[in-house]
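DM from R.C. (forwarded with permission)

"hey, sorry to bug you on a friday — could you get me a structure for this? deadline for the figure draft is monday and I only need the backbone to look sensible"
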Amino acid sequence: MSQSRAKFPQSYEGLGLLDKMINDFIDERERKKMSGKIGERLPSVIFKTRVRDETIEGDNPYKWLSVYTDEYFEDKKVILFSLPGAFTPTCSTYQLPGFEALYEQFKEKGIDDIYCMSVNDAFVMNAWAKDQNLKNVKVIPDGNGEFTKGLGMLVSKSNLGFGKRSWRYAMVVDNGVIKKWFEEPGYIHNAEDDPYGETKPENILSSL
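My reply, with the result:
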């Protein structure tokens, strides 16, 4: 009697098949836990940031500062959008500049702050903010991907040499609780494309 063989996604081909299956099972379990994201509290993590300190002399007057989730989100209504990487084309050309340009319109809708997050370290995020000449949008480095994983949005982009990164999503958060959720379709590891539509600033603004 012939036996049919299980077919696996193309991303499983090559080395580490068992590891990929285990990791994807864990990732999917985390995503199911957050399937009802609206009404959920944000993951509680510590972000490792770099902030300017005028008491430090020299060309690099910055120090490390640990910031807890609540310090960003407590007692305020904010927009958080997360993207695959600083300095990448769609993020740098459209999404981040779009939120910066529409900042005042978001304020008129009752938004206190707009945060841009990526699974990048604080040095990269600060350099990107400077390159983008940001005045309003604030960047948050999720360097270890702990916050992103807690939301079930951490994906592998090893096909691009990126390692673990964030799937593109956005949300409206009120006092640490998710009130509106926006996610690009087709969540998958090692995606060949980078969908961008649901998380456009214009789309989120129109929902408020």
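R.C.: lifesaver. The helical segments are 17-33, 69-73, 89-101, 103-108, 122-131, 146-150, 201-207.
me: no worries. The chain has a mean pLDDT of 88.
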